[in-house]
Write a structure and sequence with these properties.
The protein has 118 residues and is mostly helical. 80% of the residues lie in helices and 0% in strands. The longest helix has 35 residues. The radius of gyration is 19 Å and the shape is extended.
Length: 118
């Protein structure tokens, strides 16, 4: 983590090796450590995090189109946000996308996967 904090500001999009060494390697080590701690029973994660992890593919697929759509709705209605309203609306968008991805995972992705595996 300290590597990311120390070197992270100097990483450019052009130098992919530096990005991998600065962000990818420490993140991978953190993930590997957490997976080993969970496997050996030292930690457990709340069900909400496990559900969010299960629905991550649906989240990946729907986040961008849903974000674009939800950002256009106030514009289409001619509504102008104040700064605090814009922040609150951004939180609303994030929560809506996460909830929608969980629904998509449970009622679309899982049944399709179950059908295909039969």
């Amino acid at each position: 983590m300290s590597i990311i904090i120390y070197f992270g500001y100097d990483v450019s999009d052009v130098d992919s090796y530096q990005r991998v060494l600065t962000f990818g390697l420490p993140s991978g080590l953190i993930l590997l450590t957490l997976l080993n701690l969970e496997k050996n029973g030292f930690i457990s994660f709340p069900k909400l995090f496990l559900t969010l992890g299960d629905s991550s593919y649906a989240l990946y697929l729907i986040h961008f189109p849903m974000m674009l759509l939800m950002n256009k709705i106030p514009q289409m209605l001619g509504y102008q946000f104040t700064a605090i309203q814009e922040i609150n609306y951004s939180y609303f968008i994030i929560i809506s996308i996460v909830i929608t991805s969980i629904f998509v995972h449970k009622w679309i992705e899982k049944p399709i996967a179950k059908f295909i595996l039969k």
